[in-house]
Specification:
Strand content: 5-15%
CATH class of the largest domain: Alpha Beta
CATH topology of the largest domain: Rossmann fold
CATH superfamily of the largest domain: Glycogen Phosphorylase B
Number of domains: 2
CATH architecture of the largest domain: 3-Layer(aba) Sandwich
Structural class: alpha/beta
Strand order of the largest sheet: 7-6-5-8-9-10
Radius of gyration: 22 Å
Shape: globular
Largest sheet: 6 strands, parallel
Distance between the termini: 46 Å
């Protein structure tokens, strides 16, 4: 991002839209591809799609909706340079976009509360959690070896180094698999860390699987792990899809003690929370499980999955979208008279 553009945004937030189109040449290409189609409503998935959806909606005379999976203005707030250069642009794009959005939704109540406060919205965004479609999986009790899984993006800032380091402190029956896509150099660094700690027989780096097979493959494990550092408001309010994927797969959960995840963890008795992301704290949480407790939480997860699924969650989003489309059509009819 050019310093000149950032300065212009500080002076006039409306310059953020022009700045957006300079950030990535793919944005213009995405717009060109999308403009070949007509829609009743355009849906912007996260702030990076907002100007594209707004432009298309304005040109076609239809509404647009905004669904955010992140707390965009705080996503990397622990980085000073990001706060100074990128946050103002993101905030300006999001503020302007939400103001004109027919439907605004997000994946956690904490994000909804923060957006409501930050942009002084007349009402809170709609809560639509990021859940998988329902899949029926049989209960599978623990075997001799207890298999722990992390699946998702494999990259910095996700507590994976601490997870690996903690394995040396786990009871011997536990094994860890880290599965997902990531930068080659980061995966190489994790592999070196595993080898250097002498954990090659207890920690596996596995390649990603297709999204449609994610839950099915997770069901082969016993515990779903996510030790996310709570170093930003974005992380504090996180309610990731992996939480629901682990639940759908019938796993016991071992996740960071962050408000959104902890509330659901306790509500459905799904597992144990990790008070802070250190090897010692992670190991204490994992070692707090025995086979009987894991099996109990696995049964609870399979019951919770009947409620925490996309079929149960989607109706509110579809109803809001249908209402927005109908209102826009009625407004066009009135204007045409």
């Amino acid at each position: 991002m050019r310093a000149k553009d950032v300065a212009l945004v500080y002076a006039n937030p409306k310059h953020a839209d022009a700045t957006y189109w300079t950030l990535n040449d793919r944005f213009e290409r995405l717009y060109e591809l999308a403009s070949r189609h007509r829609a009743d409503i355009w849906l912007a998935n996260d702030w990076t799609a907002m100007p594209i959806a707004r432009r298309l909606a304005a040109e076609q005379g239809v509404p647009y909706a905004y669904d955010t999976h992140e707390l965009a203005v705080d996503e990397y707030a622990h980085r000073l340079l990001w706060r100074l250069t990128q946050r103002p642009v993101i905030a300006a794009i999001e503020r302007e976009g939400i103001a004109g959005s027919a439907v605004t939704s997000c994946v956690s109540q904490g994000i909804a509360d923060r957006l409501h406060e930050l942009y002084r919205l007349p009402e809170k965004p709609l809560l639509i959690r990021n859940m998988p479609r329902f899949e029926a999986h049989p209960y599978r009790p623990c075997g001799k070896t207890i298999q722990v899984l992390y699946h998702g993006v494999v990259n910095v800032g996700r507590g994976l180094e601490a997870c690996i380091d903690s394995v040396a402190l786990w009871r011997p029956e536990f094994r860890l698999t880290i599965r997902g896509p990531g930068p080659a150099e980061y995966l190489e660094a994790l592999a070196a860390r595993i080898k250097g700690a002498g954990l090659g027989d207890r920690v596996t780096l596995a390649p990603p699987v297709p999204m449609i097979n994610l839950v099915k493959e997770a069901a082969r494990f016993d515990v779903g792990l996510f030790a996310l550092p709570g170093h930003s408001k974005q992380n504090v309010h996180v309610l990731p899809n992996k939480f629901f994927e682990y639940t759908m797969a019938g796993l016991a959960l071992c996740v960071s003690d962050l408000p959104e995840m902890t509330a659901l963890l306790r509500q459905h008795d799904l597992g144990r929370s990790i008070p802070n992301v250190t090897p010692q704290a992670i190991a204490a949480a994992v070692n707090g499980f025995d086979r009987a407790l894991i099996d109990l939480h696995k049964r609870h997860a399979l019951e919770a999955a009947k409620l925490l699924n996309w079929e149960a969650e989607a109706d509110r989003l579809f109803a809001a979208i249908e209402q927005a489309v109908a209102a826009a059509a009625e407004a066009r009819q009135i204007a045409a008279q």
